[in-house]
Amino acid sequence: MSDTAVQFRKATEEDLPAIVSLIADDQLGETREDASLPLKSCYVAAFQAIDSDPNQFLAVAEDKHRVVGTMQLTFIPGLSRKGSLRGQIEAVRVVMGHRNFGIGENMFRWAIEQCRERGCSLVQLTTDKSRPDAHRFYERLGFEASHEGYKLKLPQR
Question: So what's the pLDDT on residue 4?
Fold first, then answer.
């Protein structure tokens, strides 16, 4: 398998089962996601909200017409940094059999270029503390662990 065959594009609703399956297929997602078919309506509603927002870009990596990776880019306008735009990279996943072939690195290089083209002055991401391999990967790509992040889980209504 060569990463040169992988193409990146905007996700469509038809990609949704593959995307949800990817985000459910790790130690974090397996306890909080539900990839059973038919997909729960909450995933369709979330996709539609992302797809209709010009500051969101849900991407897939495709190899031979098969979704092998996904990520979400969010473009955040702000007043800090002299009113600059930030690019946020989230929910990055590569299907198990396609890992360690450079797809993740190429996904990040592609995402960073998308942020550059949109005029972002900064690209940021969050990563779970339980993923030391991911931390090393991000640092190898030039990201710095410059902040401590906090989250507050809210009960679902």
Answer: 59
Angle at 72 between CA 53 and CA 152, to 5 degrees: 90
Cα within 13 Å of Cα(100), Cβ side: 3
Exposed / middle / buried, residue 58 (Cβ in 10 Å: 0-12, 13-18, 19+): buried
CA-to-CA separations, 153 to 3, 38, 110, 150, 156, in angstroms, rounded:
37, 27, 31, 10, 9
The C-alpha angle 74, 79, 84, rounded to 5 degrees, equals: 55
Q: Where are the alpha helices (DSSP H) in the chain?
A: 16-24, 29-32, 41-52, 80-83, 103-118, 132-140
3-state secondary structure of 35: coil
3-state helix, strand, coil in the chain (%, to 5): 40, 25, 35
pLDDT digits (tens, 9 = 90+) for 80-108: 999 999 999 999 999 988 888 899 999 99
> Burial level of 131, CB count in 10 A (0-12/13-18/19+)?
middle
The pair phi, psi for residue 3, each rounded to 5°, is: -70, -10
**3-state SS string over 4-26?**
HHCEEEECCHHHHHHHHHHHHCC
